[in-house]
């Protein structure tokens, strides 16, 4: 191996190792948290994915009567969720799983086709453990910080919707259109970074997700 290519390979390996190490710590912290508060005798709904899920701090109070487990881990991509599927989803034997991935994947220059292929693997692995679980794919969201990626996000969302139509027990939650004002993203639903949601933003997500929570077998978005 030529020195230049070896150096690039080594740096890539180091970067991957550091990223994976950081996620391992976060995943283990989530595991320790739910080891103490999760009741295995109750039906469970898991919300997981990247920071838009991690930062949804009032999920439990918004869905009273449901045992909610929030295993969102910031900055994650679909491949990261696939790698940590056991700790973040499978161990809870959930009735419902809401997944938000794809946002960071697009910014990392992954093609929608790649993201869908990974999502299909995630679905297959979850269904292998419990064929009756309901999986809800939350659409990639629009944001002011990443509005320049809107065409790629819209393409990904079309593929998410198509996947939900094809796969039994999979639904699509369209938060994209709920967050628009006409053809433009609303400006009042984000914190200062223009990427993550404020209370108004999560209220919009709730308006899309609540009907699915209450009518798990009815998918009006298909």
Automatic annotation (TrEMBL):
Signal peptide annotation: 1-22
GO molecular function: phosphatidylcholine lysophospholipase activity
Keyword Coiled coil tagged: no
Pfam families per the UniProt record, alphabetical: Lipase_GDSL_2
Entries under Gene3D superfamilies matching the protein: SGNH hydrolase
Keyword line: Signal
Organism from which the protein derives: Arenibacter certesii
SUPFAM superfamilies with a match to the protein in the record: SGNH hydrolase
Residues covered by the SGNH hydrolase-type esterase domain: 57-204
Designated name of the protein: SGNH hydrolase-type esterase domain-containing protein
Superkingdom of the organism of origin: Bacteria
InterPro entries: Ester_Hydrolysis_Enzymes, SGNH_hydro, SGNH_hydro_sf
